[in-house]
Design brief:
Structural class: alpha+beta
CATH topology of the largest domain: Nucleoside Triphosphate Pyrophosphohydrolase
Largest sheet: 4 strands, mixed
Shape: elongated
CATH superfamily of the largest domain: Nucleoside Triphosphate Pyrophosphohydrolase
Order of helices and strands: EEEEEEEHEEEEEHH
Radius of gyration: 19 Å
Strand order of the largest sheet: 7-4-10-9
Distance between the termini: 41 Å
Number of domains: 2
Number of helices: 3
Length: 186
């Protein structure tokens, strides 16, 4: 097992940026004895939820993403706050970003978004029979456009690059919707 070659010597916080902390871990590689710092982002776990209406439409959001400086088409998602459960966070994020409320929810699984440099996990959910209950309540610095897309259109949108956010692609893969047009039960 490769982990036995790495000995953690020290862990120190470099900076705190509210949504993540930058940590430097000092390791020694055995048996050579070489030492090196490895940097990681320590953050809360995230959720992503595929909200599906009883008409088999996915409730999605368009929003500007500063990393790529483009508007992306995504499913609702965000950070898990404090000690709330991932399922509760999914309901909260869905309501805040879209105005829809969860009727039924089931876990699709979880992944490490980037275990090379991040400590957190992303939890995925399918919310079925979601219902609109009122105006979205986004964070003060979010500008979100809510759109609905027929579930049957998602494979084409994945294939032609309209949906490119890796965690959104992962969520649909975990649901069983793939770019070649196959979908659950079909």
């Amino acid at each position: 097992m490769p982990a036995r070659y790495w000995r953690l010597l020290e862990s120190r916080e470099i900076s705190d940026h509210k949504i993540f902390r930058l940590i430097a871990d000092r390791y020694r590689l055995e048996p050579e004895g070489r030492e090196r710092d490895f940097f990681k982002f320590s953050a809360s776990d995230w959720i992503n939820v595929i909200p599906l209406t009883d008409q088999q439409e996915v409730v999605m959001v368009r929003q500007f993403r500063h990393g790529v400086q483009e508007v992306t088409l995504e499913i609702p998602g965000g950070m898990i706050d404090g000690d709330e459960s991932p399922a509760v966070a999914a309901g909260r994020e869905l309501r805040e970003e879209t105005g829809y409320r969860i009727q039924k929810i089931r876990s699709l699984g979880k992944v490490w978004p980037n275990p090379a440099i991040q400590t957190n996990q992303c939890h995925f959910f399918l919310a079925e029979d979601v219902r609109y209950e009122g105006s979205p309540q986004p964070d003060p610095y979010e500008r979100i456009e809510v759109v609905t897309v027929p579930l049957a259109e998602i494979p084409r949108m994945l294939a032609d690059g309209q949906i490119r956010h890796a965690l959104v692609v992962t969520a649909f893969a975990m649901l069983g919707v793939v770019a070649n047009g196959e979908s659950p039960g079909g």
